[in-house]
Design a protein that fits this description.
Blueprint: H1 4-7, H2 17-20, H3 44-64, H4 73-94, H5 98-117, H6 132-164, H7 174-219, H8 224-267
């Protein structure tokens, strides 16, 4: 494995180097953990998701341990994170109903954040949600939640009427409005929720690959000009890494906010 493999682990690998060079979209393909067992779905992305779940549980248990009236630094950090999601997202979007959904929102934000930050560590380097299937799975959970609570409150018929027949619309226009509302509320919402998360993480990491690989190749040239450009390209990778951290946090926040808003719209009396 060359030096590039330390930065982009999936690009290195002895005999497989020819299959991974040059880096590109295929760099995001998962690596089976047990290639000879015929279980390709047990791969690096699944491992990251499992580790992320365990980390989220352990970190919040650690935050909750030894609570004091006057919080120390550890307790203060936990309280700030919890209050940001509970008050800044849940209470703002859901009003009086925020308490029952706070655990899900906190867990959702934490899980997305941890898995997004996996993309910044040199042992993993690939955000879990740069694989679109995982983004769709998470969006499906939120879709089931906001539709489930809406049906539980309004009944199936009442909920469908709420989501597809907004008040104040002239009767003849329902022929147009109902299909559009079905498309918007039941299909577009989860799809855009997933694609927004996936596309931001996928594109960001692809840009990092371009700068790192391009810089590495330029450094191998004999021209001093190319070598200077290569060094500049590698240096630019670091602020892009920082930007990716910001994007990872932002996308976790946006996904959680939109989930809370979709739940609120399902519980509302008017659409």
């Amino acid at each position: 494995m060359g030096p590039l493999g330390l930065i982009i682990p999936m690009e290195g690998g002895g005999e497989d180097d020819l299959h991974h060079w040059p880096p590109g979209v295929h760099s995001f393909d998962p690596k089976p953990l047990f290639p000879d067992a015929g279980m390709d779905w047990v791969n690096t992305y699944l491992l990251q998701a499992v580790i992320g779940t365990i980390l989220v549980i352990l970190v919040w248990l650690w935050f909750a341990k030894d609570q004091k009236v006057v919080p120390g630094f550890k307790q203060w950090i936990g309280e700030q994170l919890y209050n940001m999601v509970r008050n800044g997202i849940g209470r703002e979007a859901l009003g009086a109903d925020y308490r029952k959904f706070t655990p899900y929102l906190v867990g959702l934000f934490s899980f997305i954040l941890v898995n997004n930050l996996f993309g910044q560590f040199f042992l993993t380097m690939f955000p879990t949600f740069s694989r679109v299937g995982y983004a769709y799975a998470l969006a499906l959970l939120s879709w089931l939640l906001y539709n489930g609570v809406g049906i539980a409150k309004h009944g199936l018929g009442g909920y469908l009427k709420l989501m597809t027949m907004p008040k104040g619309v002239p009767g003849p226009l329902y022929v147009i409005i109902i299909p559009l509302e079905i498309l918007s509320n039941f299909i577009v919402r989860p799809v855009t929720l997933a694609l927004r998360l996936f596309a931001n993480l996928f594109a960001g990491h692809l840009v990092v690959i371009v700068f790192v690989v391009g810089g590495s190749l330029l450094l191998e040239q004999t021209s001093v000009v190319y070598q200077i450009a290569g060094g500049a390209s590698l240096l630019m990778a670091f602020p892009i890494f920082a930007l990716e951290i910001f994007v990872g946090v932002l996308q976790a926040y946006i996904f959680t906010v939109l989930t809370a808003q979709y739940v609120a719209s399902s519980l509302a009396e008017d659409h």
